[in-house]
Amino acid sequence: MEQFKWLRCQDAILELLAPEKKVVNAPRTLDEFNRMLSLAVYDDLDFMEAEVLATINLIRDRTGVLSLTERYDSLPMWVHYPAKAQGYVAVIENLENSFQGDETGSLNIPKRVFMRSNSSG
């Protein structure tokens, strides 16, 4: 079902980055989803919170971020680097062919980030 597409993407991310934390597969139907929610483990909120935090920390330890820009002279990009905004520029041609994504729908794929301007000034 289309409504479970995002859950399947999250399932693929968990399988890839923290397979030891995965205990069930993502549901494919509403009936499967409802049966899952009726499991007693979901009533233990302290346990669930601890498991979620442990999984988040495990994934954080295993992942990184590659930050790219379309402009080499982007001041907001350079101010995030140490050593008085010094660094180097690498040009990646055909970026779409270098990072084609994967079954998660979220990893190994460039995503555009937009900066919002502060309109309070």
Keywords:
0% strand, 6 helices, elongated, 42% helix, 121 residues, single chain, mainly alpha
Describe the structure in your own words.
The chain has 121 residues and is an all-alpha fold. 42% of the residues lie in helices and 0% in strands. It has a domain at 2-62. The chain is elongated, with a radius of gyration of 20 Å. The termini are far apart.
**Portion of residues in helices?**
40-55%
Count of separate DSSP helical elements: 6
Strand runs, count: 0
Mean pLDDT equals 83
The secondary structure category is mainly alpha
Helix/strand order, N-terminal first: HHHHHH
Q: Oligomerization state of this entry?
A: single chain
Strand percentage = under 5%
Biggest beta-sheet profile: none
User: What ranges have pLDDT less than 50 throughout 5 or more consecutive residues?
Assistant: none
Backbone shape: elongated
* Cα-to-Cα separation, first versus last residue: 47 Å
Radius of gyration (Å): 20 Å
Q: Could you give a short description of this structure?
A:
This protein has 121 residues and is mostly helical. It has a domain of 61 residues.
Topology at a glance:
Blueprint (H helix, E strand, L loop, with lengths): L4 H13 L12 H8 L7 H18 L12 H4 L3 H4 L9 H4 L23
